Amino acid sequence: MVQKYQSPVRIYKYPFELVMAAYEKRFPTCPQIPVFLGSEVLQESRSPDGAVHVVERSCRLRVEAPRLLRKIAGVEHVVFVQRNVLNWRERTLLIEAHNETFANRVVVNESCSYTVHPENEEWTCFEQSASLDIRSFFGFESALEKIAMKQYTANVKRGKEVIEHYLNELISQGTSHIPRWTPAPVREEDGRAQAALRDPGSLEADGPRGAPGPAPEMVVTDGDKLDADYIERCLGHLTPMQESCLIQLRHWLQETHKGKIPKDEHILRFLRARDFHLDKAREMLCQSLSWRKQHQVDLLLQTWRPPALLEEFYAGGWHYQDIDGRPLYILRLGHMDTKGLMKAVGEEALLKHVLSVNEEGQKRCEGNTKQFGRPISSWTCLVDLEGLNMRHLWRPGVKALLRMIEVVEDNYPETLGRLLIVRAPRVFPVLWTLISPFINENTRQKFLIYSGSNYQGPGGLVDYLDKEVIPDFLGGECVCNVPEGGLVPKSLYLTEEEQEHTDQLRQWRETYQSASVLRGAPHEVAVEILDAESVITWDFDILRGDVLFSLYHSKQVPKPGPQEPGGRASGPLTDKGWVLGVDGSRVEAPLICREGESVQGSHVTRWPGIYLLQWQMHSPPGSVACSLPGVEDVLTALHSPGPKCKLLYYYEVLASEDFRGSMSSLESCTSGFSQLSATTSSSSGQSHSSPLVSR
User: Fold this and answer.
1) Which residues, including other chains, have CB under 8 Å from residue 565's CB and lie 6 or more apart?
2) Where's the PRELI/MSF1 domain (predicted)?
3) Which of 302 and 430 is assigned the larger pLDDT?
């Protein structure tokens, strides 16, 4: 594979003639570049009028590689041939270089140019490109490629410093101006004779007035080149190879993309997301550009107006900036009724609102870059989880959240600079176990999570936010205008017809199983747990009647019954001989669930074995039996007319390994979470449950 390098445009704020005088000081040796051992002129020529000066040099460079590699190669230095064409009339220097050493195994080509700045003739521009093609090298091709590119990019940076060093030296010696070249007056016949005698190679370099020479791709033109000073000022510090990747990807888009070319900050985010792997970043960016075009995302901020309901109940908004100048977005997730919002405006409206927040975030980053005079390409998000409970584990809501995470990760990479999560409750590890596998590792490393009041004091919010902007609801003095959220009234929900139109009801129904419960004939689901500290989660809606929900641990395997997807038995599973306290134990207190209620909960298992989720008709107080209904009771209930309860339910088992892994990742996010982590992990000694009844 051929490795390529392309530099940005580097600008010397000195006239071309003075820069050329500094450049000549690099030869025949240059102490400022230790790997440059020296050079000798192979041939030299000038045009008759002195306008074009052609020099061909042999340059020796020391090999900086492991001793074993140098020993195998049998060389301590390599030889490059460099051809310089200096055109005083056009004020250009074109440099072409290639390797002579190992030319049959390794091909290195380099092109450089010094030209006059297109907007200021007293400044000089420099550009550089190179390619490396390692065909074979004693089995060390990959190692040589890495070493060569590392050394090359190091010398690129050093090269500019050397020119600036010699410029300062010339100025300190009193040379601050060198007159431009002017042709000597010649008679007409002498001019014709000189033209005929010109060196053929120099004619190619001289060319017609206004043309820079044989490398037109190196000419600086407005809008299609990146200035190194602009990169440093507006995009931040990049290594030479990172600069090269940015320039190559930008150039590729200019040549192939038919739509609007993304801003440099946007392109750079995709490169960072793929660790500056050019092909991977290009693929990711192309897919995102197609997505933006398909959904007209470029027009979102002009066309999207959130419904009044979202503005009132969506508990999120922008709030000044963090200590580094990043825009700050506050989300009071614990106060937000995600289920109510989805039932009132639909998943697509919520997604569109999230996208508008991301679009606004990019816009605010540009504004803060101008305001603070330094590159700001990402924002900070402060998430308050006070009030987070099992209601937020409503499965369609979790699925919608995962979808939003996927869309944002694919199309807004590297826009999140830091995520501060405060007041995380005990239920948070369960939610984290569900969503963390879908979050990119680079993004997860930006999470800082605090439980309880750990966010207060040193190491907390004051390390990331100025005291003047910490919201009042977190103990600060700043009034925060972010909506407080709250429960969405049922009267604002979409009708079933409206939900059917958006295909929302069908998607939700596919998530749940339906069941009927008769008096004396409960509905039971048997779940086999292989490892302690696994997590059983449940989510069910009571459609008709009142139900008593319980969770049992059984010592015996229940009789086979109707099989659930995945091979888990369901229906009435236990016989009359099953005795509570003998054959099994109740691990969750019975929970009365009324008609119309929605229940979400979880249980961290203490032992492996069979766990039974049971729904039975609610009986009056004092009539709860100490044993489960028997077969005769079930058969009698099935053949006798009477009231029937209906429910939709969903359950999931989070494997112990996944749950412990998520706990470990939480602990690695910040020490502020360790207290909560220890509390949740104590389930090996006792069960942990978080049931919650909502509407």
Assistant:
1) none
2) 3-175
3) 302
Q: Which domains does the chain have, with CATH numbers?
A: 2-173 (3.30.530.20), 228-295 (1.10.8.20), 307-490 (3.40.525.10), 512-558+581-619+642-673 (2.60.120.680)
Q: Average pLDDT in the 391-399 region?
A: 87
86 vs 92: CA distance, rounded Å: 6
Model confidence at 666: pLDDT above 90 = no
pLDDT at 598 > cutoff 70: yes
Place of tokens 């826009």: 415
Q: Which residue has the higher pLDDT, 287 or 260?
A: 287
- Beta strands 379-384 and 327-331 are parallel
Q: How far apart are CA 232 and CA 10, in angstroms?
A: 11
Residue 695 has pLDDT above 70, yes or no: no
- Pairing, β 535-544 against β 598-604: antiparallel
CA distance 222 to 230: 13
* Helix, strand, coil shares, percent, the chain, to 5: 40, 25, 35
Q: Cα separation of 461 and 416, whole Å?
A: 17
Contact 392, 425 (CB under 8 A): no
505 has pLDDT over 70: no
Cα 183 to chain centroid distance, Å, stands at 58
Task: Tell whether the model's pLDDT for residue 359 goes beyond 80.
Answer: yes
Question: From CA 230, how far away is CA 264, in angstroms rounded?
Answer: 11
Sheet of strand 523-529: strand arrangement: 570-571, 523-529, 609-617, 547-554, 584-593
Q: How far, in Å, CA of 474 to CA of 95, rounded?
A: 62
What angle separates helix 338-345 from helix 395-411, to the nearest 10 degrees? 80
Identify any residues that bridge with 77 across adjacent strands, giving them in sequence order: 62
Q: d(Cα 329, Cα 322) in Å, to the nearest integer?
A: 9
- Tally of residues, the chain: 695
Task: Please give the pLDDT value at position 566.
Answer: 39
- Helices marked H in 583-686 — which ranges? 631-638, 656-669, 674-681
| Mean pLDDT (whole number) for 335-339 | 92
339 or 688, greater pLDDT = 339
- What pLDDT, on a 0 to 100 scale, did the predictor assign at position 218? 35
Burial class (CB in 10 A: 0-12, 13-18, 19+), 74: exposed
Would you give the DSSP letter of residue 102?
T
Q: Which residues contact 55 (CB under 8 A, 6 or more apart)?
A: 41, 43, 44, 83, 84, 86
List all residues 6 or more positions away from 534 whose beta carbon is below 8 Å from its beta carbon: 604, 605, 653, 654, 655, 656, 659
CA neighbor of 82 nearest in space, from 29, 115, 30, 43:
43
Amino acid in the structure at residue 190: D
Residue 420, CA atoms < 13 Å, CB-side half-sphere = 22
Rounded to a whole number of angstroms, the distance between the first and last alpha carbons of the chain is 61
Percentage of the chain beyond pLDDT 90 is 47
Q: Which residues pair with 1 in a beta bridge?
A: none
Query: 627 and 612 in contact (C-beta within 8 Å)?
Result: no
Cis amide linkage into residue 28, ω under 30° from 0: yes
Angle at 321 between CA 317 and CA 322, to 5 degrees: 120
- 399-421 average pLDDT score: 94
Enumerate residues 6+ apart whose C-beta is below 8 A from 312. Answer: 483
